[in-house]
Amino acid sequence: MQIYTIVIGGLEKSYMQKLVLYLNERLEKSARVELLEHWEIPEQPEVWEMKKQSVGVPMEGSKCWDTGIGSEAFITYLTEQHLVNHTLTVTAQKCTEKAVVYQYQPRDCLYREIVSKCPMNVGGRQKVEQEGGRQRWMVFTGEGRSGVLMAFSLFYAWMLSETKKVLYVNFTECSGMTELFELVEQPEDFSDFLLALRRQSAASLACYTGRIDELEYLIPADNPQILRELTEADMNRLLVSIAQADQYELVVFTLGTLVCGCEQIFLQAESRIHLCGMHLMEQCAGREKKRFVSRCAPGREDVMKRIVLPEMKCEHTGVTLLYEWRETEPGRLAAELISAGD
After folding, report:
1. Which InterPro entries does the UniProt record give (predicted)?
2. Residue 65 in 3-state DSSP?
3. Interior CA angle at 157 toward 154 and 158, to 5°?
């Protein structure tokens, strides 16, 4: 299958270079992004025809890219020369128009806006070469202290992402994930993705993911009640969408809330980790949850690994917590789990 191509031009040079590198890193095999620096048309047409060949500008009428992104002048040039099928104009003002993207926003947000407005399929085009030939799933669950459950499972996924392509999915209401790691609040999140799937629109998972270093995560719903409103059909559509995003080698789920349809995750996960506490009340709650999980995947009780939650010290918020935890007990425990899983 022919790869989707994007060309960028007409903006400040260093900005374009960084954007091209970032988009190629995020899109991987789904698309190829190129930079076209020399395209300005001089006043004398005969000079322009000679310059085209020297700087590698395509001849008029040859469709060389699927989408062009850049300044208004650059987009005008691409359109007049019939070099692209679709265009996105980069502007300094926020705009809701479909063919326009806002320049001054975090790269993560800019990436999602570009993906949502380009008619391309992110992931699902080519298989990622990985051991076993398919995407692997693992799930964290536990009793009480949903914030700690989220913190350790995300920290574990973050450590894994240093060597693997990982997606983190948090099914835990009010876990504090956005505030604890000071994540940029997004206009669209899990609830919007769920609505798009219900409408059977061509929704790309990439439009609803954020990033912490190399770790990608499904943006948690601003309204936690959405987790209580999930149906089994919703979960089916969501898991199918995740499975088709085969750029990910590993998906880490956190089920602090036992949402409808979670049985499918427990059944399909290769690894299930139950985080527990030392107190009697926590142990009783943990045994009840373990019995439920065992019913979800009968005969696979051996896959359930039970570990005691480490102390997750945090005197401030922000992603720097992840680096601090790596040097303490949580880091040691996560490294052991990763080593055992490999």
Report:
1. P-loop_NTPase
2. strand
3. 85
For residue 278, what is the enclosing H or E element? none
Write down the residue that tokens 């693997």 correspond to.
164
Look up residue 337 and give its two tokens: 């789990």
Instruction: Tell me, yes or no, if the pTM score tops 0.85.
Output: no
- Residue 6, strand partner residues: 33, 67
CATH superfamily of 136-341: P-loop containing nucleotide triphosphate hydrolases (3.40.50.300)
Domain over 4-117 is classified CATH 3.40.309.10: no
Q: Are 145 and 279 in contact (CB under 8 A)?
A: no
- 147-159 per-position pLDDT tens digit: 889 999 999 999 9
Asked if residues 109 and 183 have their Cβ atoms less than 8 Å apart, the reply is no
Q: Give me 172's structure tokens.
A: 């835990």
Asked if pLDDT for residue 252 goes beyond 80, the answer is yes
Domain boundaries, given as residue ranges, for the chain: 4-117, 136-341
